[in-house]
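Chain A, query sequence.
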Amino acid sequence: MIEKTYSFTRGGEAVDVYTLKNKSGMEMDVMTYGGRILRLTAPDRNGKFGDVIVGYLKPEDYFDKPHAYYGAFIGRYGNRIGGAKFTLNGVEYKLYPNNGKNTLHGGKEGFDVKNMKASVEGDKLVLSYLSPDGEEGFPGNLDVKVSYSLTDDGEVVLEYNAVTDKDTLCNLTNHAYFNIGDGEDVLDQTLYIKSSRITPVDDELIPHNDFMDIDGTPYSFKDGVKLGKNMFSKDHMIALCHGFDFNYCIDRETENDCELCASVYDPQSGRFMECFTTLPGVQLYTSNTVKGTQGKKVYENYSALCLETQGYPNSPNCPAYPSTVLRKGEEYKTRTVYKFSVK
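Chain A, predicted structure.
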């Protein structure tokens, strides 16, 4: 079931919140502003429901406070583009440098601050936005849709579609912050990522066309590792980030199927979340610098983790990475699923 449950006005525009419910009692709130997932309830092993999304208390807060991309739909380009520029078809495009000298999550005003049109199509909430040619420096009119559904099997399904009238870049994701437990942090939760390599980064967190084998290192979660085990490693990149903020190259078995890429388990509550995607990468971010944020509560560092499915960061400048170019006449179509259960 999907219904509009809350509305308010900002900047002369109506902002709506929709609530999706499944037969087992799970609920998810999604806001048209930024396509944000505001709330998601999931049962523990005793059947008690808890909100597994870290963010602000009220929808209006996402206008009034620094939001750290909480729960947001990210575009046109998720993650970083080095030097805030790229070359496509022999033309250099300059972007807005909102992360030092680099571009992060679409630029100064990415999709996270756009109020989108909503429609309910069967069991899906569909949000749409037309990004005009030249917005944030990107070429082409990009017509984007993202759909949200909550299945009776406990799956949050995100489907992304886009078309363009000019060759451009497209790398869409969602920046939900998850804490599937009931505690203050995720350090005792066990994370699995199906990955043998990451794209290593410089001190500005930009990768440069290379790969790093991680089996047997503090970066690997292939065998299932408690998040706190290596969070405070002295390895240079982990120490630089004060935790994890890296793109994991998924060990995919197929090219386009929606495959398992990661899972997280909270032993205290019994909640278990699996992440499936059609995309080649997933960014693990462990909310390394959110201490003191007044949200639904006052958050500490490591209060949540993000599993942002994506094309690789800086791929427009890295020919060894999978392409994130969307050609005129082609359709961008990806799918990511977060499935909840208990152990």
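The mean pLDDT is 97. The chain has one domain: 2-342.
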